[in-house]
Write a structure and sequence with these properties.
The complex is a heterodimer.
Chain A lengths: L5 H20 L8 H10 L2 H20 L48 H37 L1 H16 L2 H12 L7 H8 L1 H28 L3 H8 L4 H37 L11 H7 L9 H28 L12 E2 L18
Helix pairs in contact in A: 2-12, 3-4, 3-12, 4-5, 4-8, 4-10, 4-11, 4-12, 5-8, 6-8, 7-8, 8-10, 9-10, 10-11, 10-12, 11-12
Chain B lengths: L6 H16 L3 E14 L2 E14 L3 E5 L6 H8 L7 E9 L2 E2 L5 H7 L4 E4 L3 H4 L6 H12 L4 H14 L5 H6 L7 H13 L5 E5 L7 H18 L2 E6 L2 H7 L2 E6 L2 E7 H6 L4 H9 L14 H9 L8 H22 L8 E10 L8 E11 L4 E6 L5 H8 L5 E8 L2 E2 L8 H6 L3 E4 L13 H12 L4 H14 L16 H13 L5 E5 L7 H18 L2 E6 L2 H7 L2 E6 L2 E7 H6 L4 H9 L5 H16 L4
Parallel strand pairs in B: 3-8, 3-9, 6-7, 7-8, 13-18, 13-19, 16-17, 17-18
Antiparallel strand pairs in B: 1-2, 1-4, 4-5, 9-10, 11-12, 11-14, 14-15, 19-20
The chains are: A mainly alpha, B alpha/beta.
Chain lengths: ~375, ~625
């Protein structure tokens, strides 16, 4: 063990000092748990907060406006309704004076409302994202955790499996799955399901492909954590393998997991967009952001708003998720801290003390 | 003025000492140096208003505990601090101001005028270049000479630091050298440009005692040869006593006391210095028995004469030792009962992993621990001492021989099997690194209670009560139950570790270097606590450590390990007063004493041991 650096010392001492201060206040007080500290740090991260706010706004807007799961929304059109062209399809919304209008994002050539279509697309993107995050996170954690904890043949088998999945090109595989899911004539259950929930099939499929990167990261984390002495201590205490994995190691690996699931999710949105753009993802008459961009790329010169609005939402969702992921990473890793010298406050307390330094002892 | 009281003779003595060092020119002058770190939008001072100077040929030791700012202030001299730090004050190197200088200028100074020896030579040397290439690089950065000349100079430097085969060392990569050789190579590199000032940041902390003694010898020789000023940063009073001319004691960012080595050791003024000196465990000054004069014991065992000690006096001290040994031997022959831990011809292997073949770490180990006995297992790194400790709690399999723990033979027990599960209810273990041995996500109350919960001994309110009792026993406030490990200091964490190990009231406790990661004063408190608990609860203990002085405080019996074998074992008295094995003698002689006078004797003895060919 090398000696801790001065900075780490200071961090530890700060925590100590805080504890001492809390002590003075209330006798029996619960200390801050790791989770509480992470939350506090996360909410001190401006970028992450903005990301969270933007994402929450988009989420609410997308799911309430056109409705979801059979519940109607507050917007008067949906993504398939055709209505007469208003203002030749040009967006009716304006910033000054602030007005919403009949078709705020405009209409396409046959008169479908672009706002409704964009909201539906955003819904699809968010659904895919959540599915991929959940499935890839769960599978990755389980595979990586088992491989890292048990080593030996378990690790060999699981890791070769991830190697095999890693080398399969996602686009090709997606094309095949897309083909199967779109043979509606055959009337198989998967086709029937896919015709209604194309995006769910896509999300599940991508989730079962994208866990490989996570599994490797989690395995690495488990490999380091299982050598830590508290694991030995737990074993001597008589803990079973399951208890060691779930109570002792996994909570310590959760930071890596959450951060990387978040970042995988933002990549997943782009992947769904790309697949839909290539015609392998969501199929008309349903729509998604990628599909909207693809369908309207020829209209870029004449009706540019058909391209801009879906594109804007792709960027907004991706950026906000990335900012959240960034904030989470900073929150989980105390070394990733920013310090502004100009706004810093002077303190007289030395890093290794909880009481003010006595001046009498100075420089004797 | 004429009739000054008692301090007078000492003061004149000190005067001459400082006169002697004053002949060197002033090399480093530090005035009002303050270092702050930015943490959470606040400037937190790490060092406040430091003033000191170092002259050529002088060794200034900056002593303090971790977090006292000793390293931070020294790294600030060279501008080697991270970006969230701030340095104020003035640092003059031979009259030239270093602080506030342009980065290009300070780069000129680094390596050429000021060199640094780091704590960990393995990480301070670049593993992808040979040692020679790295020294040549340093030389050619600061001198315009040809590669051949630089090479010759590098080999000369390697020769200077007493590496056995400089040519071979030149071509070696860092991982091909041993720890001591690496540190020598580091010293060669730092000295290659003939620096005016050498900053040694804990240069021997990562090394074994015998290697440490060699490096300290080397540094002393070099100081005499090179006439550089040396700033020695350390927490080890023994190292300070061995090397330093002057000492500055730092605490909480402030120099609380400074003076010559003589002054500080014989007449410390500040209470903190006194406490620091009192906390250092002296080899041979065990808790309740009489002091053991290790120097005399060694001299007797090896038939050497010391120049610095009068012959008659040495004989007297040797006789004293023998008398004490006799009484101790009588005491040791008491009846003992069923052994708690028994190793018979045990061999322990680290199992084969992938292409790495199995490694036999311990061979033919024989060891018995009776109830209530504390056995110290001493050895250098890689001697297999920790391996025995881990095998005793069933964390490593036994490859051959038989190992009986609390009456059960676990040498054939299945990993995580039922038998081990049973045995572990009677064992506790305290780990080396307190910050790694507690789960950072569990409140410490839960960590302490886990063994009881899993053993089904207690649940609910009863469990909480027991946790509180344990916290009381290790002298921690009960309110700490809900705290998390990161909120505790190192010493407090180690107390929690002890509480957890005690929670099932074990018959056998295995302590794996429980104090090596702690500061001296904290170590002293933890050892005292451990000792009290052991006396109170009467568990048997296998105490693994590399520090002879620590084992001396605690242990009834001492086992010395070398290269996977137990080379000598006996009672504390037998080992300290009459060491038989050359290795034990060497180990004892290498432990630096926190007293310049005694250390001088010890050093001479060690030199004679080496000369006598006891390698």
């Amino acid at each position: 063990m090398s000696q801790p650096t001065q900075e780490e010392e200071i961090l530890a001492q700060q925590a100590l000092a805080e504890a001492a201060r809390a002590e003075a206040g209330i006798e029996v007080t619960g200390g801050l748990s790791q989770g509480q500290i992470v939350r506090k740090r996360f909410f001190g991260h401006t970028g992450a907060l903005i990301g969270l706010a933007v994402f929450a706004a988009i989420f609410l807007l997308a799911f309430t406006s056109v409705g979801a799961f059979g519940i109607p929304g507050w917007w008067k059109y949906n993504h398939v309704d055709v209505s007469p062209l208003v203002n030749d399809g040009v967006p009716t919304s304006s910033l000054w004076p602030l007005a919403w209008g009949e078709h705020p994002f405009g209409q396409d050539r046959i008169g479908r409302d672009l706002f409704a279509m964009t909201m539906r697309g955003a819904q699809q993107s968010i659904t895919v994202m959540v599915l991929i995050g959940a499935i890839a996170g769960a599978v990755g954690a389980i595979v990586g955790g088992l491989a890292g904890y048990f080593r030996g043949w378990v690790e060999a088998v699981l890791m070769r499996l991830t190697d095999v999945i890693i080398i399969i090109p996602v686009l090709l595989l997606a094309a095949v799955v897309g083909q199967i899911a779109n043979r509606r004539d055959e009337g198989s259950w998967i086709a029937g399901f896919a015709s209604n929930n194309g995006v769910v099939i896509l999300g599940v499929f991508l989730g079962f492909v994208l866990w490989v990167g996570l599994a490797r990261l989690v395995r690495g984390e488990f490999l380091t954590l299982r050598e830590r002495e508290f694991v030995d201590a737990a074993r001597i205490s008589g803990a079973s393998n399951a208890r060691i994995i779930f109570k002792h190691i996994l909570p310590n690996a959760v930071g890596v997991l959450i951060v990387n699931v978040t970042l995988t999710m933002s990549a997943a949105i782009l992947l769904e967009t790309a697949l839909s753009y290539l015609g392998l993802g969501v199929k008309a008459p349903d729509t998604s952001l990628g599909l909207l961009v693809a369908q309207n790329q020829e209209a870029f010169a004449t009706r540019p708003w058909l391209f801009w609005f879906p594109g804007l939402f792709i960027i907004l969702i991706c950026l906000s998720i990335n900012f959240i992921g960034d904030g989470l990473r900073d929150a989980f890793d105390p070394r990733q801290k920013k310090f502004k010298a100009k706004t810093a406050v002077e303190t007289a307390r030395h890093s290794s003390t909880t009481a003010p330094v006595a001046d009498a002892s100075k420089g004797s | 003025m004429t009739d000054n009281a008692s301090p007078e003779p000492e003061a004149t003595h000190l005067e001459t000492e400082s006169d002697k060092s004053a002949r060197g020119a002033m090399v480093l002058e530090v005035r009002d140096l303050s270092v702050d770190f930015g943490v959470d939008k606040k400037w937190v001072p790490a060092a406040i208003g430091l003033n000191y100077e170092v002259r050529a040929g002088e060794v200034l030791a900056i002593v303090g505990e971790s977090g006292s700012g000793k390293s931070a202030s020294s790294m600030a001299l060279l501008g080697l601090l991270p970006s969230n730090s701030r340095v104020r004050g003035s640092v003059k190197l031979s009259g030239k101001e270093l602080l506030g200088d342009k980065s290009g200028n300070i780069r000129e100074v680094r390596g050429k005028d000021v060199a640094v020896i780091f704590q960990e030579p393995m990480t301070a040397l670049n593993p992808v270049y040979t040692v020679g290439a790295q020294i040549v690089e340093t030389i050619r950065l600061h001198n315009s000479i040809s590669p051949d000349e630089a090479r010759q100079r590098a080999v000369r430097m390697l020769d200077l630091v007493e590496l056995p085969d400089p040519e071979k060392a030149f071509k070696s990569y860092p991982h091909q050298l041993s720890g001591g050789q690496r540190q020598r190579a580091m010293i060669a590199q730092s000295l290659s440009c003939d620096p005016k000032l050498l900053i040694a940041d804990e240069p021997t902390t990562a090394l074994d005692v015998t290697v440490q003694a060699e490096i300290l010898d080397l540094m002393r020789n070099l100081r005499n040869k090179l006439d550089s000023a040396i700033v020695l940063i350390t927490h080890d009073m023994g190292v300070v006593a061995d090397l330093a001319d002057r000492i500055a004691v730092m605490r909480k960012g402030v120099i609380v006391e400074s003076g010559t080595a003589q002054q500080i050791f014989s007449n410390p003024q500040h209470e903190y210095t006194q406490a620091l000196l009192a906390a250092v465990p002296h080899l041979g000054q065990g808790a309740d028995t009489a002091d053991v004069d290790v120097t005399a014991a060694l001299a007797a065992a090896t038939n050497t004469e010391l120049e610095s000690v009068d012959h008659d006096e040495l004989v007297r001290r040797e006789l004293e030792n023998q008398a004490a040994l006799k009484t101790a031997a009588e005491e040791a022959a008491k009846p003992k009962g069923e052994p708690v831990l028994e190793l018979i011809d045990v061999a322990i292997e680290y199992p084969k992993q992938g292409r790495v073949p199995a490694f036999r770490a311990v061979e033919e180990a024989n060891l018995v621990i009776y109830p209530g006995q504390v056995v110290g297992l001493v050895g250098e790194s890689g001697s297999g001492k920790t391996t025995i400790g881990r095998a005793a709690v069933g964390l490593l399999p036994v490859a051959a021989g038989s190992m009986r723990v609390v009456g059960q033979d676990i040498s054939a027990a299945k990993r995580n099997g039922k038998q081990l599960h049973e045995v572990r209810r009677d064992i506790g273990m305290v780990f080396q690194d307190p910050s790694s041995s507690l789960n950072p996500r569990l409140p410490i109350g839960e960590s302490i209670g886990e063994p009881m919960y899993l053993a089904g001994v207690a649940k609910g309110v009863d469990l909480q009560k027991r946790i509180e009792t344990l916290l009381d026993q290790v002298e921690l406030p009960r309110g700490y139950r809900n705290r998390y490990p990161h909120e505790l200091s190192g010493g407090q964490k180690q107390r929690v570790g002890i509480a957890r190990a005690l929670s099932l009231q074990p018959k056998l406790m295995v302590a794996d270097e429980p104090t090596s990661a702690l500061d001296v004063s904290v170590q002293a408190k933890v050892l005292e606590l451990f000792q009290n608990l052991q006396r109170e609860l009467g568990f048997a203990c296998l105490f693994v450590t590399h520090d002879l002085a620590v084992v001396d405080v605690l242990a009834d019996r001492i086992c010395v390990m070398q290269r996977g074998r137990i080379v000598e074992q006996g009672t504390r008295e037998q080992i300290l007063r009459n060491p038989q094995e050359p290795y034990t003698q060497r180990l004892l002689a290498a432990v630096p004493l926190p007293d310049p006078e005694k250390q001088r004797e010890r050093r001479e003895l060690r030199a004679q041991l080496m000369a006598a060919g006891i390698e």
